[in-house]
Amino acid sequence: xxxxxxxxxxxxxxxxxxxxxxxxxxxxxxxxxxxxxxxxxxxxxxxxxxxxxxxxxxxxxxxxxxxxxxxxxxxxxxxxxxxxxxxxxxxxxxxxxxxxxxxxxxxxxxxxxxxxxxxxxxxxxxxxxxxxxxxxxxxxxxxxxxxxxxxxxxxxxxxxxxxxxxxxxxxxxxxxxxxxxxxxxxxxxxxxxxxxxxxxxx
Length: 202
Description:
By secondary structure, the chain is α/β, with parallel strands linked by helices. It has five helices and eight strands, in the order βααβββαβαββαβ. The protein has helices at 30-38, 41-45, 81-93, 112-115, 156-175; strands spanning 12-15, 49-52, 56-58, 68-74, 97-102, 136-141, 144-147, 179-182. The strands form three sheets. It has a four-stranded parallel beta sheet, covered by helices on one side. It is globular and about 55 Å long. 29% of the residues are buried.
């Protein structure tokens, strides 16, 4: 029965879940944040929403979260799926909305969606060809491979949009997140005004 606060009353506390305890030996997890909420820490600040930096499953055990590998799986280092759901329920009980920082402009190499289109005989990044891939452009950067086909005229953009929408609806339907912050929104989409615009320029 939780209702999100009116837009002009949203006061956001952005946080990195793996750093919430302030103790490098015990950085924090879903249960740690639940304790902070129940102790009234956020009530005393007057915030109405918590924005969690990306907590999609990423490579390794600690990260800022901007190297996603699984768009629809929460990072296992932070705890169990049930604990994440309890975290959001607890926040709602304290009249706090929960927003999720999402990263759709690139994906890391361990991602199954990425590996589906790797050449079987050569794993080197520079040899990848995505001519028939409905998601990626043939470009490697320090931030992984990009989800590309947002605005192309050959119909492939539908596959990418549907994948992103499916992921967003999953976080809402399964976990009850209240909203999203899109990372690098200006980089989602290519070509500017010539063949479509990104979220940012739109």
